[in-house]
Amino acid sequence: MSAASVSDNPELSRYEVRLDGELGGFAEYTSSDGVVTFTHTEVAVEGKGLGSTLVRHALEDVRAKGLTVVASCPFVRSYMEKHPELAG
User: What does the alpha-carbon distance between residue 64 and residue 66 come to, in Å, rounded to a whole number?
Assistant: First the structure.
């Protein structure tokens, strides 16, 4: 698998994962008063680790900004349960 890159797209309120420049998935969020709530995650190809790469980067980024994470999205919630160090 090629290297995936993840970036925040604040105009669309989502983190995006790209594979060879093509959108491979996204994690939508809302942000208010220092709280980032992840609401929905989609990946184009399952079983390749794109979702995990996407969510790990998003959680690390939110944590680095000193913000609080709320996981309304079941995928993000499950990932945080498996990786409590990223719960921030």
Answer: 5
51-74 pLDDT per residue, tens:
999 999 999 999 999 999 999 999
First to last CA, the chain: 29
Phi first, then psi: give them for residue 34, nearest 5 degrees: 80, 10
Q: pTM for the complete prediction?
A: 0.92
Closest CA to 5 of 39, 56, 42: 56
Tokens of 22: 């093509």
Please provide residue 48's backbone torsions phi and psi, each rounded to the nearest 5 degrees.
Answer: -110, 0
Residue 7 makes CB contacts below 8 A (sequence gap 6+) with: 15, 16, 18
9 Cβ contact list (under 8 Å, min separation 6):
15, 16, 26
Residue 59 CB burial class (10 angstroms; 0-12, 13-18, ≥19) = buried
